[in-house]
Amino acid sequence: MDQSTLDQEIAAEQRHLDRVYARLAELRRSAVHAEREGYRLARVGNFGALVERDAMVFHAAQRRHVLDAEYEGLVFGRLDLRDGQTLYVGRLGIRDEDATTLVVDWRAPAAAAFYQATPAEPLGVVRRRTIQSSGERVTRIEDDLLDPDAAPPDMPVVGDGALLATLSRTTGRGMRDIVATIQREQDEAIRSPGSGVTLVSGGPGTGKTAVALHRAAYLLYADRSRYAGGGILVIGPSSVFVEYIASVLPSLGEDTATLHSLGSLFPGVVATRTDPPEVAAIKGSLRMRRVLERAARDAVPDSPTELRLLYRGTLLRLERAELDAIRDRALPRGARRNEVRRAGFDGVLAALWSQARRLGITGLPEQRAFEDELIDRTDFRDFLKAWWPRLHPRHVLAWLAEPRRLRRYGGGLLSGTEIRLLGAAYQGSASLSVADVALLDELDALLGKPMRPARQKRDPFQLAGGVRELSTFADRQRAARQAARERPEDYRDYAHLVVDESQDVSPMQWRMVGRRGRLASWTVVGDPAQTAWTGDPQELARARDQALGRRRRHRFTLTTNYRNSAEIFAVAAAEIRRAYPDLALPTAVRSTGIDPVQLVVPAPELEATVVTAASALLGEVEGTVGVITPVPRRDQVAAWLGAIGGERLQVVTSLEAKGMEYDGVVLVAPGEIRAEPGSGVRTLYVALSRATQRLTTIDPTG
Ligand SMILES: Nc1ncnc2c1ncn2[C@@H]1O[C@H](COP(=O)(O)OP(=O)(O)OP(=O)(O)O)[C@@H](O)[C@H]1O
Predict the structure, then answer these.
(1) For ligand 1, atom 4: residue with the closest CA
(2) What are the alphabetically sorted keywords of the record (predicted)?
């Protein structure tokens, strides 16, 4: 194609973009006006006006936020259809004043063909055009001619494919924006039905995380009231998500999607420390459920072992065995300790009453008065509080650090070695690990909530004077919004759960996640070949099935690796193939002609070689460099590198590298990662598949 045709084509797209941005500015002005108008209404002061104001200001502000957030790259696609129509696809749907569609939202059914049409199945699309822009200026266009027979003879076709052009660009700290280049197999998973369970599997770099997040955005678009009202919980490596959402999917705002890592699902706790795989396997095993059940029924450390009470000159006594029997009676199997405290207290009072009667205390009042008298006494109340305190899951988990208790709880469930390993893990560190968070959640379910005086529930639809009214759209929106804002910290009734890196969710973690998705539909994405789980794989499958329940499953497999150059993925593939010769692997689509560098150096030269390699990569790639190390080496390697590279360089362990992506990677001591018991090869496969452009591996010898 000659330059003048290209210029003409770009100029034509520019005219459309000008129209779109002019309309956007108008919409923004009217949103700002509506917001102001809303505040003016507030001054009228009556209740109806306030409700109206609230709804108006909220909508206008939300609209303005969306318009601002989606400004960059607003229009990214154009379809020329067989019937002569032209359709523009973008981040938002925009209509002109006369209701002509200027842009179709990428999530709308009409936009599906943009992602799904292929030359074999053009779906009515003659030419698909990807438009790149910077601010309001068109910078580049790329075409795919999908149905040459239907194309008018003068239809220009520009460029050689948008996908490869996008993939060759360097990455910043966040993930790449894929909305303009979502591929057909990805789009099918994104638009899978909202109900049931959508399972997406695929090897490294196939876009699983990108698909999971775009699916959340799609569901919100498809049925906003259902998903925004109930909320979407997204679980995965949180740092990746936060950066991704900030830069790529701003429409997944705070009110609609809640982001958590497995270490932050329990209220008030944010754990980031990972246990060694052999400890994580014990903490993640379903056998821990029984271990914790025993702990949750056990006596509190240092609690009184007997009760002595002087009552009208007579000593009343309850011995340890008697107190234990009262606790056992008040706490039948399945009862929650914090919720049946009252029954325990009643048991103590009843035992004291029958003792007082047996002893024939003179002047003994009626049973009720006797009990009231005791309850009024501070020493008696102090005893009850110490004997059966309200327990927080953290208290009970800490008991596992006591060797004698742990042996008692774990006896017959865990092996001697496992008890020693677990004990050492709890004695060795006071901070909670990621795996501990699921144990806290289990304990929370076992202990129950402390009884509190019943409080009246707030009804979001209750208007002034107790009238239950739900009439206007504004009311409904207001109620849903309020419900979202008022979601308690341990909210569990999500409408949808998205689980990324699901291969690393342990059985105990599936129980924790499942508690939050009882009413939900699910999207679960993962790659079994990347799992760090070294425990029983069948137990893992069982726990997952239990969490997902009997809902219908929709399965999708992604087959193209968009991250790694073909040369880099060849090294990763060879590694995993040694352990799993029959594994289906994705195809890497992009070749750079640059092979990874694989160095073997004498141990004393490791430091200098790592520093040199990292500095070299910083010069060779524009974006980020990740230095990936075996877990025990991280701090040492970080010290070697000091401030080299600043923000552009990150030192992470092989476990922390999950889900991450860098332009260049220096992998330190891959042999040590491979040798880790249980999951070594799989962890190494993860580490080898993080780089987009350059990979240097450095193995020390001796
Ligand atoms: N259709 C696409 N167009 C452009 N880039 C894409 C596309 N799909 C995925 N990518 C890019 O490929 C990279 C890998 O995507 P992502 O991290 O979602 O893969 P993943 O399957 O979750 O990988 P892993 O299992 O290795 O963590 C990202 O940079 C992503 O932006």
Answers:
(1) 178
(2) ATP-binding, Helicase, Hydrolase, Nucleotide-binding
